[in-house]
């Protein structure tokens, strides 16, 4: 490949991919002539979580197979392509920064709306549909439910705010006296103030991650997050297989190092 004009960076990238490819083969007991492609795509989608990086990884393996005279055509499209946007975990420090900015808002209803976006991934349009009667409990767990909009409320600050609203407003009243358009403008202003490039979808994904960390079944997470089964499954793979992949790589490296 060097003789064909490939850059040093590309060669280094391909070396890393092939090292990971052999970790995959060792883990499943495959060899380069006979391996399960679906398992390969799942294994690699944990580390290479954007379309571009995934395609690069498959290209490296394809070149390697060709060099080893294996006739096999790999897919260059990531699994669950429509739901393959990289999962962006939001740190505790980032949530803290956002919360501090929210608390500076004059309107308590607007504060609550922003907290609902950040902690449940509800969109401004979804929040605008909520009534006071939308807040209740299911098996003793606080929830918001209005039509297709369903969320477990697992943040204590939001639970207390919603309890106070329910005590002071009529059941048929809008849950929050703030317009979706105002929420959108405020959301983008807070993102600019915090220097964070986050979308409502990122917060929805992080809400999914919080439910998965509590070991809720995937179908329940789908129902109470508004995310598709494909997206929830992908985030679940990121949360569970990422650590496994790192452990596998470390274990295999130690084993190989000790044998040398």
Automatic annotation (TrEMBL):
The record's GO molecular-function terms, alphabetically, read: DNA binding
What InterPro entries does the record tag this protein with? Answer: CB, DNA_brk_join_enz, Integrase-like_cat_sf, Integrase_recombinase_N, Integrase_SAM-like_N
Keywords annotated in UniProt? DNA integration, DNA recombination, DNA-binding
SUPFAM superfamilies hit by this protein: DNA breaking-rejoining enzymes (SSF56349)
TM stretches of this protein: none
Annotated Core-binding (CB) domain residues:
1-69
Gene3D superfamilies reported in the protein's UniProt record: 1.10.150.130, Intergrase catalytic core
GO BP field: DNA integration; DNA recombination
What is this protein's name? Phage integrase family protein with SAM-like domain
């Amino acid at each position: 490949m060097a003789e064909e004009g490939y850059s040093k960076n590309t060669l280094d990238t391909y070396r890393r991919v092939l090292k990971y490819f052999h970790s995959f083969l060792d883990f499943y007991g495959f060899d380069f002539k006979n391996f399960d492609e679906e398992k390969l795509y799942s294994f690699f989608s944990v580390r290479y979580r954007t379309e571009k990086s995934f395609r690069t990884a498959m290209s490296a393996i394809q070149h390697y197979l060709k060099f080893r005279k294996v006739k096999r055509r790999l897919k260059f499209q990531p699994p669950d392509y429509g739901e393959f946007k990289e999962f962006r975990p939001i740190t505790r420090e980032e949530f803290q920064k956002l919360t501090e900015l929210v608390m500076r808002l004059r309107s308590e209803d607007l504060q609550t709306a922003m907290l609902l976006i950040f902690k449940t991934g509800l969109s401004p349009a979804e929040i605008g549909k909520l009534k006071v009667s939308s807040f209740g409990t299911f098996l003793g767990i606080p929830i918001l439910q209005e039509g297709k909009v369903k969320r477990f409320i697992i943040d204590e600050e939001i639970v207390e705010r919603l309890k106070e609203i329910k005590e002071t407003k009529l059941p048929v009243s809008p849950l929050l006296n703030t317009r979706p358009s105002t929420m959108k403008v405020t959301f983008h202003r807070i993102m600019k103030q915090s220097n964070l490039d986050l979308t409502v979808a990122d917060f929805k994904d992080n809400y999914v991650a919080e439910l998965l960390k509590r070991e809720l079944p995937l179908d329940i997470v789908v129902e109470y997050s508004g995310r598709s089964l494909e997206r929830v499954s992908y985030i679940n793979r990121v949360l569970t297989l990422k650590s496994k992949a790192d452990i596998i790589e470390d274990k295999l490296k130690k084993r190989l190092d000790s044998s040398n």
